[in-house]
Design a protein that fits this description.
This protein is of the alpha/beta class. The chain has helices at 23-33, 46-55, 59-68, 71-75, 90-100, 135-142, 170-175, 197-207, 209-216, 221-224, 237-259, 281-303; strands at residues 10-14, 40-44, 114-121, 127-130, 152-154, 157-161, 180-184, 264-266. It is built from twelve helices and eight strands. The protein is globular.
Amino acid sequence: MKESVSTPKVGLALGSGASRGWSHIGVIKALLREGIEPDIVCGTSVGAMVGGSYVAGNLDKLESWVLDSNLADVLGFFSMRMPHTAFVDVEKFDWFLDKFVAAADVRIESLDRAFAAICTDFEKGHEVVLTEGCMANAVRASMAMPGLFPAVRIGEQWLIDGGLVDPVPVTACRALGADIVIAVNLNSDILQRHKRVEPEVASLEDETVLGNLKKKSKAYSKMLGANGDESDKAPGLITSISKSISIFQDQITRSRLDIDPADVMIAPKVGDIGMLEFRRAADAIEEGRAKAQEAVDEIRKRIKPGHS
């Protein structure tokens, strides 16, 4: 009598990447169209938000909002007053999470598939993997990028952005029982954006909360100004912050994936999308869809029962 061969559990690890994270929508939609449904979803930062929206059944609503939103909608989440803890208006962001990710009463452990949001313990710097409790709180904690979002108190810990410790949560997927892990890395080309560095600075300066602060306060005009395209000048503030974040995200991502590589890697080429260029959502979604489609054959081979 032949022994039955079980189908391996599939984990989907959705990485961090700010506005590049809309690529995850395209990835998930492409996989679902091919009949590939993950049993386990783990997300870091924006990956937690998109992944949480998917497992809570709200991905279509999130995609519609993303594609229909404009600059004013995005800027509406930011406070124009100099804050004590962060720029994001928490009440408005909680409204967004409730409507497009998961309602306040949705708990992770009540969902149909396993889910985890990756965070960082603010005091100790340790990785924290949230697999139970309020979904919206877990997502907000995972996205709590210092300076933009305030830290989130869960239990005895203050939690911040999980991208500081694990930008692509392959290990968390395996810990939850995944036999095969499909990872989405949004950081594969973030240090190769040579041609778009200055346009991105202009976009950030004109179209983000920092640009609005610049317009509203002469005191911040010089501090937030770009340096133009003269190579003999030191990088401006926005360029320096953005590039520094890109460098440590790239290094941490490489280190973690060297230790625990994914079985299938999907790497959308979205390095030319700035950290806060939310207006390029359609580009990011399409790139995620295309790269996921390219990986379908490899995924099918991996998840075939008996494959090793």
